[in-house]
Write a structure and sequence with these properties.
By secondary structure, this protein is an alpha+beta fold. It has eight helices and 19 strands.
C-alpha cells in the first residue's frame, strides 16, 4: 500500500490505519462520532495526501479538458474551482473531480482509488492536443482544515488575509514560513475550511504547526470514518456509492456539474448521458431511519413489500441525532416524507424520505 508523508505521524498519534484506495490511511483517532462533533463544533485537520493531483499544461489545455470533462472549463474564471466529472462513452462516470483554473495551467484533483484510471483516460484522449500531463501525486501532499474555527486557525499560520479567498476559489500565501503556498476553499464536510497544497517534504512540519496553533481552538486530527459521515450529512456524493459505473450524474442530482451547451462542443459521454437523463426513472434521495440500525449500502428499499430502490450510503448522524442514508428510488417514491422500508435480512425496517442535504452550516438542523 502507498503511504502519504504523514503516515508515521498518524501512527504516532494512535490512529487506526486501514487500506483505502490503495493507500494506508487513518480511519479514526478516537470515536468516529466524537470526531464528527469536533468538526461541526470546532475544527478538524485531515490528511488528503492520497488524493490524485494532476496538472495540465499547454496552449490546448482548456479545449482539451472541455472535450473530456462534463463542466464548461472555458467559462471557469482564473482563480476559481468547479466540480466536474469524467464520463465513459456510455455516459456513466469514471470519476468526479475538482478543476482549478490557473493562468499557467489547470489543476485536477481526483479520487485516490481512481487516480490510475483517470490518468489513463486523460492520456488516451490527449492525442491531437498540444498539452502536457503532469502527475504530481507522489511529489506533493494535501492537508485540509475544516470547521467553524478553520479560518482563524489557518489564518494564524499565514502572512496575508485569507478572507478574500471565496468559496470554491483559491489563492497563494506564505503558510508556516513556506512562501507561495496554494490554498483552496472547498471542503467535503459541509463546513468552511481550506485545503493546503505542499511539497511532500513539508507535510509533517505544517501538520504539526497547525495542530499546535489550533490546539486552543479545539483542533483535532480527523480520520476517514468521520469524513464519510460529514460528507453524507452535507449531501455530497461519493464515487462508488452515489456515483458508480451503474449510477450516473443526472440521477444523482449533479446537473450543476453538467454542461450540454453547444458552445462547449462535444465531450466524452455527452450524448449518452443526455439520453440516460431523459430515459431515467429513478432519483437519489436522502432517508432517515429510527432505531438501532442505520441504512447500509446495498439494503433493498421497499414500498408495500416490493423493492423500489436501494440504499447507497448510511451512517449514524450525531449532528441530527438519528440514522441517515442515501438511496436510489423510483421517482414516484421520492417526495420528502414518503414512508418506505429497508430490508434487513428479510425484515422490513421503516425509513422516511428526507431532502438532501441533511445538514447545511447556514441552516442548522434540529436533532431528532
Amino acid at each position: 500500500m502507498k503511504q502519504t508523508p504523514l503516515h508515521d505521524t498518524h501512527a504516532a498519534l494512535g490512529a487506526r490505519l486501514v487500506e483505502f484506495g490503495g493507500w494506508h490511511m487513518p480511519v479514526q483517532y478516537g470515536p468516529i462520532l466524537e470526531e464528527v462533533k469536533c468538526v461541526r463544533e470546532r475544527a478538524g485537520i485531515f490528511d488528503l495526501g492520497h488524493m490524485g493531483r494532476v496538472r495540465v499544461f499547454g496552449p490546448d489545455r482548456v479545449r482539451f479538458l472541455d472535450s473530456i470533462t462534463s463542466n464548461f472549463v472555458a467559462r471557469i474564471p482564473n482563480g476559481a474551482i468547479r466540480y466536474s466529472l469524467f464520463c465513459g462513452a456510455d455516459g456513466y462516470p469514471i470519476d468526479d473531480l475538482l478543476v482549478y483554473v490557473d493562468p499557467e495551467y489547470i489543476r485536477l484533483v481526483v479520487n485516490a482509488s481512481n487516480t490510475d484510471a483517470d490518468l489513463a483516460f486523460i492520456r488516451e484522449h490527449a492525442e491531437g492536443f498540444d498539452v502536457t500531463i503532469d502527475d504530481r501525486t507522489d511529489r506533493t501532499t494535501m492537508i485540509a482544515v475544516q470547521g467553524p474555527e478553520a479560518l482563524d486557525i489557518v489564518q494564524s499560520a499565514c502572512d496575508s488575509d485569507l478572507s478574500g479567498i471565496g468559496y470554491y476559489r483559491f489563492g497563494r500565501a506564505t503558510v508556516c514560513s513556506i512562501p507561495n503556498t496554494l490554498l483552496s476553499r472547498t471542503g467535503y464536510t459541509g463546513e468552511d475550511g481550506f485545503e493546503i497544497y505542499l511539497r511532500e517534504e513539508d507535510g509533517v512540519d505544517v501538520w504539526s504547526a497547525l495542530l499546535e496553533l489550533g490546539g486552543s481552538r479545539g483542533l483535532q486530527p480527523i480520520g476517514l470514518g468521520a469524513r464519510d459521515t460529514l460528507r453524507l450529512e452535507a449531501g455530497m456524493a461519493l464515487y462508488g456509492h452515489e456515483l458508480s459505473p451503474t449510477h450516473h450524474a443526472l440521477e444523482a442530482g449533479l446537473d450543476f456539474a453538467i454542461s450540454f451547451a453547444e458552445e462547449k462542443g462535444d465531450w466524452v459521454g455527452r450524448d449518452a448521458l443526455k439520453e440516460l437523463g431523459e430515459a431515467g426513472t429513478r432519483t437519489l434521495v436522502g432517508v432517515t431511519a429510527e432505531g438501532k440500525r442505520p441504512p447500509r449500502m446495498g439494503y433493498p428499499v421497499l414500498a408495500d413489500g416490493v423493492q423500489v430502490g436501494e440504499i447507497r450510503s448510511g451512517s449514524i448522524s450525531p449532528t441530527l441525532g438519528t440514522n441517515i442514508g442515501t438511496a436510489y428510488v423510483e421517482r414516484e417514491f421520492s417526495a420528502p416524507g414518503t414512508e418506505l422500508a429497508m430490508d434487513l435480512r428479510g425484515k422490513p425496517a421503516p425509513i422516511q424520505v428526507h431532502p438532501l442535504p441533511f445538514y447545511s452550516r447556514t441552516r442548522k438542523p434540529k436533532k431528532g
